[in-house]
Amino acid sequence: MNNQLDPNSTNILAAANSLILWLAVVGVFGVIIIQSIIYFRAARRAAPAVGMTKSETITAFRAGAVASVGPSMAVSLIAITLVPVFGTPGVLTRIGLIGSAAFDVAAAGIVSATEGAALGGAGYTQAVFANVLLCIAIAGAGWMIVTLIATPLLKRGTTKLESSNTGRGAFMMAIIPAAALLGVFAAFGVQQFQKGVAASIVVLASGATMGLCLWISKHFKVRWLREWALGFALVVGLVVGVLVRNAGIA
Question: What is the pTM of this model?
Fold first, then answer.
């Protein structure tokens, strides 16, 4: 395969499937598996200290696993469409790991435009492809560095807030994360509404599905449905999105 590597060639898959990139994939996913095992064992050991029974711990793990199915499906569909642009190893280490297709595509588009090429189109040579992977890797490393620096600072602030006033601190630590999550999801929702009628219909259909699942789970004591609600909402959103697109709604 190395004899197919040529900086001026537009045969992107020859470069994308090089051995070094596949070795990087193995290394990245090896680290992910090891981290997952460490976190799983740590959470299981810490559960009794916070009053969680073994049954509740298993339920929490199962809920997290099920809730990840929906987002994983959406990311997988996006990843498949980006294989011709980034190659399978590039997609696995970027979209499959970071999960931010919007960021990676935007960054890759900027790099390609700087090189005078169209992303996945005219002028998109192996040299441009290599620059794209390098730039999005550097940008992704910036996230990790910021997280490494900011996490201890945030932890220190959390500890200080909790120790300042037990009642008030506990109340604040219960409110702040919930408010942050609501703010993030509200911002994402507003962004979709701004894209037009089609996107608004998808958001409303997904929200209605989520609300219906939670209502059925609560009133009919269907506990497993609460865990699957997010997955169902995303699947319905994808289906509605396809139908709306085929109907020609802008």
Answer: 0.59
